[in-house]
Hints:
The structure is a single chain. By secondary structure, the protein is mainly alpha-helical. It has two domains: 3-412, no CATH class; 415-498, Serine Threonine Protein Phosphatase 5, Tetratricopeptide repeat, CATH 1.25.40. 70% of the residues lie in helices and 0% in strands. The protein has 27 helices and no strands. The protein has helices spanning 3-11, 14-29, 41-46, 78-91, 95-121, 124-136, 141-145, 150-171, 180-195, 202-213, 220-246, 263-266, 268-287, 307-326, 331-344, 366-380, 385-412, 416-426, 431-443, 447-460, 465-477, 481-494, 500-511, 515-528, 532-546, 549-562, 567-586. Helix 8 (150-171) packs antiparallel against helix 9, helix 8 runs parallel beside helix 10 and helix 14 packs across helix 15 (331-344). It is elongated and about 105 Å long. The N and C termini lie far apart (105 Å). The mean pLDDT is 93.
Amino acid sequence: MKPKEWINKIFQTNKGCILILVLLGLFIYIWSLPNEMFWDDDDFILKNRYIKEWQYFPQYFSQNLVAGASLNSNYWRPLLLIVFASEWSLWKDWPPGWHSVNTAFHLADSVLLFFILLTIFRNRTLAFCTSLIFLTHPIQVETVVYVNSLGDSLSVFFMFTSILLYLKFRLSNTNASLSPYYYIALATYPLALLSKESGILLPAFIGICDFMLLDPKKTFLRRMIIIGRTIWPFALMALFYIYLRATKLNFINTFNFYDENTEFTSNFWLRLINFFQVLQIYFGLIFVPYDLRVERILEVPKTFFQPAVMFGSLVFSGMVSCAAYYWKRKPTITFGILWFFIGLILTSNLFVAINALVYEHFLYVPIIGIAVLLCWLVIHHLNSASLKNTILKAFILLLIVYCGLSIKRVFEWRTAIGFYENLIIHSPNSYRVINNLGMEYADKNIHDKAEKYYLKAIALDPKNPVAYHNIAGTYRDTGRTDLALQTFLKAVELDPKFIFSYKSIAQLYFLKKDYRNARAALEEYFNRSDEKASTLESLIYIADLEHDLPALQQYWQLAKAINPNDPAIQMKLNSIEQELNKTKRTQ
């Protein structure tokens, strides 16, 4: 068999397409294995004690995602924590292990997408080309290489699994109540919800996929009724999830990440024109992925009459009009447009005000809709063999460009310092980027540069306690203990709930043998954190040095409240009580 015939045979089989997807994905993302872990990886993984000990497993379902790092957030992702805990058990903070899991889920998502599209359109070329774009597009690198973003690909894995099983049920021509595919699809939905909040979009994705499979001779209303009869349990589950997030699992403010009413959160018009602006940016990133970066600081537009807003509104209205016009004659166009906008709903700021206007990983799923649309348009207009060869060569060239840009982007995530130094060029006034760069220099004992960037961060936001805490650590590590103590105290003065400084304050007071203030700082930490046992140990140790019997009695009583069945604690309390009685008799 000639090489050309052998290659054609590979592309004409499902197994061959899957092999290409896997090999190409590995070729791009194998370079990510040595990459360091940073950005939110610190709080979500490296400093998250919940994933380091299985004793915290019940808290996965009742606490927010970063509670183990003594932080609060709107995120509730227990299955993601389970995966993180499993990974920590296997390889601790060894980066290649974490990156291999992220890569594996992205490859799995690409394969599942191939089968979903193949099932819907029965066109292997369309399914394969779309999956290749999803797999290789440079905009996907942020989701795959950024370890903490596993929530995206993990949730998508369960969403795509559920969609594929649902489609198998529909093709089986079996009643839903008798189909094992249907029940497994339904059982997979909670796994998507437990991985990331975006999993709630699954019923909408299933709806448009189901619509494509149903007999086109049936009326629109009839098809909607058929879909409604089978999709209602998914919708009911989504409503129950929303209820939980609004009540028991509402850690800050699930439906307004700003946790306050601002002009942006209270004015739908501002959020709408901002969405048009962001839409213009997203289309630029999809079609010309040249300026990829995590941090983008945008000004919320105040008027419709700005070029970016007007262009975005034209794109939006044009796409919606096409979706409405072609739904019957060319349903693939409508499918692609609806998929794109469904994928953007949660991050559009239209219905839920989130703490970000634009992020590349927000396009992880929506880009599929654009890819389906473009691939179908190209394939639909291939009328000659010569044109097919030209398009094939152009597509191969596009994939080569995508792979090159993706690998380049992977290397931009290689080291924390390199990443932040590159990002600060684009975001010179980003408090978070500047402070994080200072932290990376401090971790590598480059204290002069760390101090320089901490001071820049403080100048940008003098009321934020984080940089004060960090620069105080640099002062302490370079021997300026008095200045360090003063700065740690400044951090908790700015925000008494900023618990991280209390332990450092206690340590510095202890070194000065100022035991009373050391205990006061530790007591604040004890009251505000959930590290009760270890903090009590320190308090008992200091009180014992002072021979402060009333304080010792108080601390051991707190210890008894934590471990009421520990006989050693009761013995210690009895001993202290005897000493107190003896002291009273002496007096």
